[in-house]
Amino acid sequence: MKNKFKVFTTIKTVFDVVIIAVIAVYISAILIQRVSGNKSVLGYRMFNVASESMIPVYKINDIIVVKDCNPTALQIGDDIAYIGKDNSLNGKIITHRIIDIDNSKGELTTKGVNNDLVDPSITTKQVIGKVVGVVPFISFINKLVMTQAGFYFLIFVPVVLIACMEIAETIIEGKIEKKELVEIKD
Q: What is the CATH number of domain 41-136?
C-alpha cells in the first residue's frame, strides 16, 4: 500500500510542479510586458500580435520579442516594431517588414507580409526595435488562455484536479495510518 501511495504522491508532485511552472512562466511574461510598458528590459521587449497583417510569419496572440537596435543598421527584409504616427495608427505599436530604406531622408517603408498596401513611410525615430523571434511556449499558452475552452482547461480543470488529488492524498494517508495502528495493536 505504501508503494502505491509513493507512486501517487510522485505523480501528484510532478503534476503540481508542471502546473505551477507553466503558470509562473506565463504570469512572469505578462508582468514583464505590462510593467515595462514600452521600455526595454535588458535590451528586449515583448509584444502581443494583435492583427493578421504578418500572417504566416506571426499569428494573432503570438508573443514576439523585439530587441533594441540601431535603426541605421536595419536592412530590407527585417521585421521591426515601430510607433505609428498617421491617422488611426497614431501611438499604436506596429510590427511590419522593411521593404525599402531611404538613408538620405532617414526613412523606412514597411508593409505587413499579409497586406496588399504599403505603409506610409516612417522615420528611424519611430523604430522601437527589430523582431528577433516568437516565444513559442508563451504564445501557445497565450492563445489557449484567450479562448473560453482554453481558460477552462488551463485554470479551472487544474485547480479541480489539484483539489481532488489533495483530498485523495488525505484519504489515503488516513487509511495507511489506520492500517498501521491496527497492525501495531495486533
A: 2.10.109.10
Separation CA 48–CA 32 (nearest Å): 12
Query: pTM (2 decimals)?
Result: 0.65
For 129, which DSSP code?
E
Q: How far is CA 48 from CA 34, 59, 142, 155, in A?
A: 11, 10, 9, 21
Residue-wise pLDDT for 99-134, tens only, equals 999 988 889 999 999 999 998 899 999 999 999 998
- Are β-strands 107-111 and 122-123 bridged in parallel, bridged antiparallel, or unpaired? antiparallel
Residue with cell 509584444: 47
Backbone phi, then psi, for 47, in 5-degree steps? -135, 150
- The grid coordinates of residue 147 equal 479562448
Residue 164 has pLDDT above 60, yes or no: yes
